[in-house]
Amino acid sequence: WLKLGSMKESAAPPDERAMEAVAKLQRRLTGEAGSKHLNDIAKLYEFSENADLRIVAEAMRAIAQVISHHRSRCGADAKLGEWLRQHAEAHQAALAQLTVAQMPRARVCGVRLALAAAQEEALEARARSVGSSTPGTTAVPTPEARIQNLITEILVAENWSEHVPRCLMGEYASRYVDVRHYILAHLKDCIEHLRGKARRPTEGSAAVKRRRMASAFGEAMRKRGLEVTSLYPRILCFLQEAPPPTAKLEDLDPETGEAKEAEVLAPTARAAGSFQRCYRKLYQDAWLELLGLHIPLEQSKALLQFLPSQVVPHLSEPLLLSDFYLRAFHGGSTEVSVLSLSGLFLLLTKHGLGDPETLSSSCNEFYVQLYSLFKPETFALQQRARFQRLAAAALSSGLLPARFAAAFTKRCLCTAVATDEVGAVMWLLAEAYSLIQKHHSHCRFLLDQRDVEAVSKDPFDNSAELNVAVDQVAKSSLWEIQLLRKHHTPAVATLTKLFLKPFFKPSSRKLDPEMYLDQGATKMYSQSMRASERQLTRWRASHNFPLAFKVEDDPVALRIAGWAATLSTSQRQLGADI
Q: What is the phi/psi pair of residue 66, to 5°?
């Protein structure tokens, strides 16, 4: 309800008269006779609509001080307690509105003021619990409720900005263990609400409070007409900024080497160590809940690149991500399938997923899907180099079943024939060469196939799945090598000649596919020009070139040339075969 849209940044000093007026109102409302002038708090709210953000911030701080001052002295006055409760809620609503203002500095200011207010309330509540407090003293909302209400308002706000989650996570969640716990717990509950997962009836007030907070989020989401696809990137932004559950070097005591005592923003009856112990599981559960949302896979491109390096190393059970990666591998576009390859290969090699069959019920699912990505469309993507590195690592791994080697070799050459990118052709040739060299007992027959029928009609179907291709390749051959020997690029034709010589011995030449990742027409032209210059230099050093030539006329040749000039076109054609 505040008119915050008119605020603007200013380098000029704030209005001293307005700042003094705010300070004067605060002193009056917190003085000995302050309870008689409480309605003057409306004037502070008027200052919170000022165009200068500094005056708005000062007015908000003054309102918080006035409410805290009288809340500690209201005693059993129910009427005053209700008045304070209503204004405390109005103050929090105003701060929440400030966090979604148009100006980025206003958003950050709102976050800092809201967290400071939650901290003051927690300290006030703790002071009451250890001191002698009147039974009728106004209850103070918990910091968990304050922070989670703030998160709800930020998520469903019309004006979304990444400044807010960066400020919350960077300044508070990374430092205070209670703040990170409250934020991730609420995000997890909000995602569960989006998934439509109903909680089971449980004992205790904590589960009831979480259900109430999630229902408030759902009500706000429906009221503003927001869909899951619009809320997903906002929740993802929060989780990407969340600190990982690891002890950093600065978190360790330099003397003992042990972790320092955790720091909390708003002290409560719960110990700080309790937040630390459950944070890893909470971090993992929040990510798993987000990955369980059924959103278009095209929205997951950034997430597929973020997970392997930033999230997977910090999960206690990374294999739980396999369902998400398989869904992306199966249901996405070629680009999405390529991006999901890195996560699947990471799970396959570094996190105990030693057998590809455990990824799904299909046999060797990982290599089946990898085989399907060897097609010209894949090598036209911008992430081609990323795919090539992962594919080379997967095919050189000991996890590749040897019976698949021949099918992959044949698929590489079929794709090379259909690809117009020179660098991709050379990489595919190098990969096929390496596969034959490593699995020569399973691939050698492809170079020496004497079956006439196989040569005249290739039974290998390039569009078939891997399990079918394994049977078809047994009757095929690498006829593509002869075709690529006639390639218009000399480098490709030269590379193909390596297949014509025996290369199965340990001392034979090895090819590294990594060398051809950045090959292209421009680079190959530059290499050819440098090679021709070197060759010309060698020729000049080893040959003597004449400076003049003696030309003598040949009478017979001159007579023949004269006859050819006098003959008509038809006469020359008649005598062509003589």
A: -65, -45
Residues counted in the chain: 578
C-alpha distances in angstroms, 79 versus 42, 74, 76, 99, 137? 18, 9, 9, 31, 12
The span from the CA of 560 to the CA of 566, in Å, is 10
Give 367's contacts (C-beta < 8 A, 6+ positions apart): 356, 394, 400, 401, 404, 466
Residue range 490-519, pLDDT digits in tens? 888 889 988 888 777 777 788 888 888 777
CA–CA distance, 415 with 407 (Å, rounded to integer): 12
If DSSP codes are grouped into helix, strand and coil, which group holds residue 336? helix
Cα-based angle 99, 102, 106 (whole degrees, multiple of 5) = 45
Residues 6+ apart with CB under 8 A from 573: none
- What is the rounded distance in angstroms from the CA atom of residue 476 to the CA atom of residue 23? 89
24-41: pLDDT as tens digits: 999 999 888 888 888 889
Tokens 């300044």 belong to 171
Contact 211, 298 (CB under 8 A): no
Quote the CA–CA distance of 478 and 10 in Å, as a whole number: 72
Flag the least confident range among 6-20, 116-130, 283-297, 429-443: 6-20
Q: Outline where 439-520 has alpha helix (H).
A: 440-443, 452-456, 466-472, 480-484, 490-496
Phi, psi angle pair for 574, to nearest 5°: -65, -35
